[in-house]
Design a protein that fits this description.
By secondary structure, this protein is mainly α. The chain has one domain. The chain has four helices and no strands. It starts with 15 loop residues before the first helix and ends in an 11-residue tail after the last helix.
């Protein structure tokens, strides 16, 4: 019997897990695209899901610059995707009720 091991770097809970999976799904499409194409697509995918997760979890939505900064921070890491996600989440602070119009 063979033990199936999943991605050891994948976060176990949301919002981190959903953002990480968005990155991984887009990274799987790198193929023949140029660096600029796939890097831009990954940044956009992470931004889109991070924005949705921010709303769902009452966090401040990241800007594209926040996503880019977190991606640059993660460059060279063995756990690049996870490092990117955790760096991004550090910038996504909880939103106070007054900030939500409640």
């Amino acid at each position: 019997m063979t033990l199936q091991v999943g991605d050891p770097f994948e976060p176990r809970t949301d919002p981190a897990r959903s953002i990480y999976r968005a990155f991984k799904a887009e990274a799987a499409l790198r193929g023949e695209r140029s660096f600029e194409e796939w890097n831009g697509a990954e940044i956009q995918a992470v931004h889109t899901v991070a924005t949705a997760m921010a709303k769902q979890h009452r966090l401040a939505a990241p800007s594209l610059d926040d996503v880019r900064r977190a991606e640059r921070y993660a460059q060279g890491s063995v756990d690049y995707g996870a490092t990117w996600v955790w760096a991004l989440l550090r910038s996504m602070r909880p939103v106070k009720a007054a900030d939500q119009g409640a």
